[in-house]
Write a structure and sequence with these properties.
The complex is a heterodimer of chains A (119) and B (117). With 119 residues, chain A is an all-beta fold. In chain A, 0% of the residues lie in helices and 54% in strands. In chain A, the strands form two sheets. In chain A, strands 2, 4, 5, 6, 9, 10 and 11 form a seven-stranded mixed beta sheet that branches. A four-stranded antiparallel beta sheet of chain A has the order 1-3-8-7, with no helix packed on it. The N and C termini of chain A lie far apart (37 Å). Chain B is built from no helices and twelve strands. The chains are: A mainly beta (119), B mainly beta (117).
Chain lengths: 119, 117
């Protein structure tokens, strides 16, 4: 089963709202990712969690705050967003090699995304 | 630095035609991985194939086939007898093995395929 689920599917929020995006996987993957995708563009990496620790933050503004409560869940907390933050937010997961293991890149499996509109 | 180029931004074909989506990549690593993903209008990226740099054997899966050629740094994707359900954006992606913390993917710009009935 290569399923990653995301909720909600659609979200409309004002610039003063606080909301959260949720992602869940039950494949035993230990790496989870947040991507942002604008229309007609490829996904852009935002954050990577490895073994529930934040390993990569691609210079994302602080109005986006990721959280990994456990190995199956990944949240993205949103606060004081701007209209230009409107996009499709994709979550992905993959197996993760322990440090010192062979250089082996695992396949990322993506969820259906959350379409966010900031008014 | 790694780079993936999908020169075809949009392709339109009529159902049952064969179509090839091009992907050219750049990397300095000797060990790397190439991927193709399909993104239908619903938005989810669907994994199609993964290939490592040491395996140049071409692969066929039903109507899909992939041609990996290291000599030209290309990893092209062919759909035989296209169907309307093949309409989607297709992304080629590269992941380098050396010094690639976090298993990062470099995506091409994507090719939008429209299959008309």
């Amino acid at each position: 089963d290569t399923e990653v689920t995301q909720t909600p599917k659609h979200l409309v929020m004002g610039m003063t709202n606080k909301k959260s995006l949720k992602c869940e996987q039950h494949m035993g993957h230990r790496a989870m990712y947040w991507y942002k995708q604008k229309a007609k563009k490829p996904p852009e990496l935002m954050f990577v969690y490895s073994y529930e620790k934040l390993s990569i933050n691609e210079s994302v503004p602080s109005r986006f705050s990721p959280e990994c409560p456990n190995s199956s869940l990944l949240n993205l907390h949103l606060h004081a967003l701007q209209p230009e933050d409107s996009a499709l937010y994709l979550c992905a997961s993959s197996q993760e090699e322990l440090a010192g293991g062979p250089a082996y890149q695992e396949t990322q499996y993506f969820g259906p995304g959350t379409r966010l509109l900031v008014l | 630095a790694q780079k993936v180029t999908q020169a075809q931004t949009e392709i339109s074909v009529v159902e049952k035609e064969d179509v090839t989506l091009d992907c050219v990549y750049e990397t300095r690593d000797t060990t790397y991985y190439l991927f193709w993903y399909k993104q239908p209008p619903s938005g989810e990226l669907v994994f199609l194939i993964r290939r490592n740099s040491f395996d140049e054997q071409n692969e066929i899966s039903g109507r899909y086939s992939w041609n990996f050629q290291k000599s030209t740094s290309s990893f092209n994707f062919t759909i035989t007898a296209s169907q309307v359900v093949d309409s989607a954006v297709y992304f080629c992606a590269l992941s380098e093995a050396e010094g690639n913390a976090g298993n990062m993917l470099t995506f091409g710009g994507g090719t939008r395929l429209m299959v008309k009935p």
